[in-house]
Amino acid sequence: MDIPYKVSYFLIFLLLPFMGAILLVLIKFLFLDEDSDKTANNSGKNSNCSNTLALIISCLYIVGFTFTLISFSSWSFISVYVVMVLNVPMMTCFTLYQLVKQLKLQRKRQKVKVVNINTLNSTAASPIINNSNGDGDGDNSGAGNGQVLSDLLGSPKLRNGFYEINLQELNGGNRIEPIGDDESDLEDQDYRFYYENTLQQEGEQEGAAQEFYFNSLDLHSKHHLSYRQRMAFKASRFKWDVIKVWQYKKMVLVASVLVSVFLGIMLPLAFENVCICSHPMSLSTALTRSTYCPSGQVCFVYLSLPKDPSHSMIIQFHTRDKPLLAYITYQQESSNSSSNSNSNRKEITNYLSMGNVIRDEPRYVSFVDLVDLKPDTEYWFNVHVESSNHKVYNSRQYSFKTLPFNNDDVRFIVGGDIQMNSDAVNLGKLVSDYQPHFVVIGGDIAYEDGIGSCYQRWDERLLFFQNTLAKDNRLTPLVLSIGNHEAGAFFQSYKQVPFYFHYFVFKIGDSMLSVDKRESFHVHKISTHSSIVSLDSCVTKLWSEQVEWLDNTWSSVELKDTMKMTVYHTPIFPAYSPLDSKIAKLGIEYMVPLFDKFNVPLSFENHEHLFKRTKPLRHGQVSPQGTVYVGDGAWGISSNQRPTNNPHGIFEKTAYSNHIWFVNISIQSEINSKANKTISLRAIAPDGQAIDEFDLVPS
């Protein structure tokens, strides 16, 4: 199984903030950690600019981790509540850490120095800290600050202007050895802490003294404490720091923690249904999306081409409201009245809820199988829905035309890889003017990348099919192939395909099947003379898994005498990728022998975002009686500018161009009771100009 594209989008959420953080770390290291910067603001630590960058770097780490968790929730890997449980304590601890850090940065005026007292091996010392209650003249009992130190640090002794602090006593009796035996060892690590502002609140000098103690202990712990002892010491220090923040910055602490909890809860909720998808790359959330499917109306109406489109048709439509009762009325002539005496009524075959995929809003997809239709006949229909709240609403009137059943000409359009832009719209208008019997789209239809929260990509395509491809409300049936962007990658399971199998069925009765029972390959008979098979190019089914079905289908009495064509997403003979790439190689192994066996004259390929036409190929070699492979999927997509090559001499023509194929199958005469068929093909660019044109006369 390939890694789904949404996993790479996780990395975007994660890596972009971390890449920014790494860049800032480099800037900080290269330009802002010089000794001159550390003393620029009377600080023994980094400059203000460096400290600000450090805060931004930390925030970027938190943002990256938070949004990565949110993306896992959005794409249904973990619950949003799990994200909140992880996010709230993480953001709260981060806030407390930053508040502690900022409080420490305020203590920059007081000077504290660690010295080595040779006569007391387990001691450290602090300079006398004067306050309004003492003058620091060396009298321990009379100095106000001396009393504070005595209460905190266990009766420190005054010696030569420094208070001596017994580290052995402070560490619960566990002796901590000095760094060295002589004073020079400490001179090399002369730890100084400068405090920029004299803090006015009562007790701040006490905090400075305790800060000195912790730094002194930390200096020794780096060399003499076990890992567990160091962790316990750091936890104890962090707890003490938080208490000090509570004492001196109570309102700031309360407000900051409340904001952290709020963000820890609201960010996952606000970004729970995030959509990030490609072609074009876009990002949206439930808060930024407006609905395409409001309550009280039929939202999208579209047709799927069944196996026998001369006598049947499959209608699908969407509603926001659950259909308590839904049906269509149809007749052979247009009528503005749904109660036309000549109309037929057909209730929906089935409907399904999209609630497990679309979480922004309710969505229901309904299916209607129409059978026993007349060939080459135009039908008009209306959709009628009574919702669960007993409101009744109707669609506007649409029409469709069944395919001919005699040896009549059939015309259709083939394209793939649709990106909505002006090129796609212009090509769609050309389709509407051509009025084909059906439209074939060879995968990568919406580029939602298998992400349920990107459902509006499909809404946009369904509107495109309904409004742009249709002319005068005449809907064109669709034949689709599954592409890698429908599943998020190749070699995926049905569970990784949130829309394709829910929105479309191509066989009468398949709407009654559960979604995981609907096949990704299907066949369609074109009049009496031709057929086209849509295959799965290793998206959810391997080539090898379709061989037996395809052999039996083409050998059946119904199809054995038809001219056979195929469509699928990933090319077997790609214009750019090497022929020994995995999917192409498997296609050559499993599919090409069947194409040769049944004399397939034409195969439509996609995926490469290029234009190409091969020479006729048989057994992978150029042969006049072989299969012509055309493609390669560029219906508005940004055309690849990758170089095409022709190392095997198999290509007749290649180009960088958006295009669709106009196909016409005509019956010119009958020879020995068999129709003499001609396939006329034109590749049309968005401006309406032909970039290729040729005829095929199958043997």
TrEMBL record:
One of its GO terms (molecular function) is metal ion binding. Its EC number is 3.1.3.2. The keyword Transmembrane applies. Keywords: Hydrolase, Membrane, Signal, Transmembrane, Transmembrane helix. The keyword Acetylation does not apply. The chain crosses the membrane at residues 6-31, 52-72, 78-100, 251-271. Residues 300-402 form the Purple acid phosphatase N-terminal domain. It is an enzyme of class 3 (hydrolase). Residues 411-609 form the Calcineurin-like phosphoesterase domain. It catalyses: a phosphate monoester + H2O = an alcohol + phosphate. It comes from the Eukaryota. Belongs to the metallophosphoesterase superfamily. Purple acid phosphatase family. This is Purple acid phosphatase. It comes from Polysphondylium violaceum.
